[in-house]
Amino acid sequence: MSQSVVLDKEAAPSAGGRLRGHPWLTLLTVAVGVMMVALDGTVVAIANPAIAKDLNASPSDIQWVTSGYLLALAVFLITAGKIGDRFGHKTTFLVGAVGFAATSAAIGFAGSIQQVIFYRVLQGLFGALLQPAALGLLRGAFPADKLNMAIGIWGGVIGASTAAGPIVGGLLVEHVNWESVFYINIPVGVVALVLGLLILKDVRSENAAKSFDVPGIVLLSGAMFMLVWGIIKAPSWGWADPATLVFLGGAVLALAVFAVWQKYAEEPLIPLSLFRSVPLSAGTLLMVLMAFAFFGGIFFVTFYLQNVHGMAPVDAGVHLLPMTGMMIVGAPVAGFLIGRIGPRVPIVGGMVLTTAAMLGMSTLDVDSGTGVMSLWFLLMGLGLSPVMVGATEVIVGNAPMELSGVAGGLQQAAMQVGGSLGTAVLGAVMASKVTGALPGKWEAATGQPLPGGPDGELLKQGAQLGIAPPNVPQGVADAVHSSFVSGMGVAFVVAAVVALAAAGLGLLTRRGANEAGPAVHI
Q1: How much is the pLDDT for 159?
Q2: Sequence-separated (6 or more) residues with CB below 8 Å from residue 500
Q3: Is 143 exposed, middle or buried (0-12, 13-18, 19+ CB in 10 A)?
Q4: Taking the CB of residue 411, how many other CB atoms lie within 10 A of it?
Q5: Could you provide one GO biological process annotation from this protein's UniProt record (predicted)?
Q6: Most distant CA atoms of the chain, gap in Å
Q7: Quick one: average pLDDT of 124-133?
Q8: 3-state class of 111 per DSSP?
Q9: How far apart are alpha carbons 389 and 332 in whole angstroms?
Q10: Which SS3 state, helix, strand or coil, does residue 370 take?
């Protein structure tokens, strides 16, 4: 059964080449909007060291600048898709674009790390409105035989924006300030708003939900918050501490209750029938694991380049160019290959290459040269490209047509949840390793034990970001940097194991069975 969509009064076929409703102009408009969301997923990573120094933020605070955004985006994506079905995708898209730009401005004016985190969460909520609405608008604008091409280009914009984030962030942080990383969204949001008002036609589902699964939203949001918060706080609380166990246990319980509720809810947030498809389920988990390794790994690389190697932000971005460039070039090549032979071989091969890249990056040390770093960055970009492109084919293509919108939200949510969990879990792994390694390295360099009390804690927190105290002997700085590198190495080994598991899941994927686009009734 194909899913029907209806258009508002503006949706009559455009005559005389008028702009409103033009398919390719619609694609351009939604691409501008989602570009902000994708760019912010990685552009902030390069600004994190500057934010930490300027606002005296702790490592866990800085993790929340990334995790809070990704988590809000992930939890709200599917709900946002239902909002678009109910109130119209054009209105939802425009609200998302305006809200995203406004919260970006608020972050730039924030005077404390707490305010930055608060507005980043709001930014993630508005960003979640943009992505499912964009997909819904494309489905209404393009005929079935052109829809896959449009979605492929749309996905390429997301991939290119994600990859370009470190370069853009480096240029802005070095030549302007870290606030400009957020201010840049203001003109982009204005362009998206103007284009949206001039070009977009509204699209809504003929069988739009009349109510929202509020209990499901609360349960899923609460579960993800408890899970990520518990993981981030575990290194300071202790993994066996009652508070840690309460949060992690509460997350498991909330997820279990959520699954049961989805079975009986009249309008479930995530219909469990979606997961009857083995390829779809494998593809969803694959996206979680891929993003876990990618976002978690890139979080540490920026600190490694800037704080250990002493690079300026733009130099750090340039050093990541082999990875970002390969992702931009590799995405269309991967799309062509997947179209010819299906997604399974490219996805499995891509995750194997990503595993090798992660293992290679685990061997980086304080003195690693540009050539060695570039090799592993290039290999990672080459490996990630077919996975990012193939995931939409596997998840959306294997969903029933009447649930394809929800599946699209699920695909995006899986990537954002994986990124949030990767940052949190690998951050906890690294913090534990650095905290254990620093005392011995400090004593070997100074002949004195690591100070206790608040001074010692400050030194440990600095080491977790690769920051040595100012005006200290080179041996002390080396102790801090080597402690950071040892922690980063362990984190990348864990990321490699996760990437290898994702490669195994790739064996269960196959080409989507529902490739035709939706019927459009005008």
Answers
A1: 65
A2: 351, 352, 355
A3: exposed
A4: 24
A5: response to antibiotic
A6: 82
A7: 86
A8: coil
A9: 8
A10: helix
**How far, CA to CA in Å, does 291 sit from each of 131, 411, 476?**
17, 11, 35
The Cα 145–Cα 518 span in angstroms is: 10
C-beta separation of 149 from 18 below 8 A: no
Q: Which helix (H) or strand (E) covers residue 434, if one does?
A: helix 404-446
pLDDT tens string 164-195? 777 788 788 878 888 888 998 999 999 999 99
Name all contacts of 25-28 with Cβ < 8 Å and 24+ positions apart.
Answer: 25/195, 25/199, 26/137, 26/138, 26/141, 26/142, 26/199, 26/200, 26/201, 27/138, 27/141, 27/142, 27/150, 27/153, 27/154, 28/195, 28/199
Three-state SS annotation for 133-197: HHHHHHHHHCCHHHHHHHHHHHHHHHHHHHHHHHHHHHHHHHHCCCCHHHHCHHHHHHHHHHHHH
What is the C-alpha to C-alpha distance for residues 40 and 451, in angstroms, rounded to an integer? 38
Measured CA to CA, the distance from residue 309 to residue 264 in angstroms comes to: 55
What domains sit in the chain, N to C, each tagged with a CATH number?
19-202 (1.20.1250.20), 214-268 (no CATH), 278-511 (1.20.1250.20)
Check residue 519 and give its pLDDT.
Answer: 35
Q: Six-digit token pair at 504?
A: 């195994």
Residues, the chain: 522
Contacts of 386 (CB under 8 A, 6+ apart): 330, 334, 337, 338, 343, 346, 347, 349, 350
- Selection from 123, 115, 140, 80 nearest residue 406 by Cα: 80
For residues 445 and 478, what is the distance between their CA atoms, to the nearest angstrom?
Answer: 8
| pLDDT tens-digit series, residues 92-107 | 899 999 999 999 999 9
The whole-number pLDDT of residue 516 equals 41
In the block, tokens 């994506």 appear at: 77
Using CA atoms, how far apart are residues 343 and 395, in angstroms rounded to an integer? 11
Beta bridge partners of 521: 6
- State the Cα torsion 33-39-40-44 to the nearest 10°: -160
Q: Are 341 and 511 in contact (CB under 8 A)?
A: no
What is the rounded CA–CA span in Å between residue 367 and residue 356? 21
Q: Which residues of 354-374 are buried (b: 16+ CB within 10 A; e: fewer)?
A: bbbbbbbbbebeeebeeeebe
Sign of the four-CA dihedral 332, 501, 497, 300:
positive
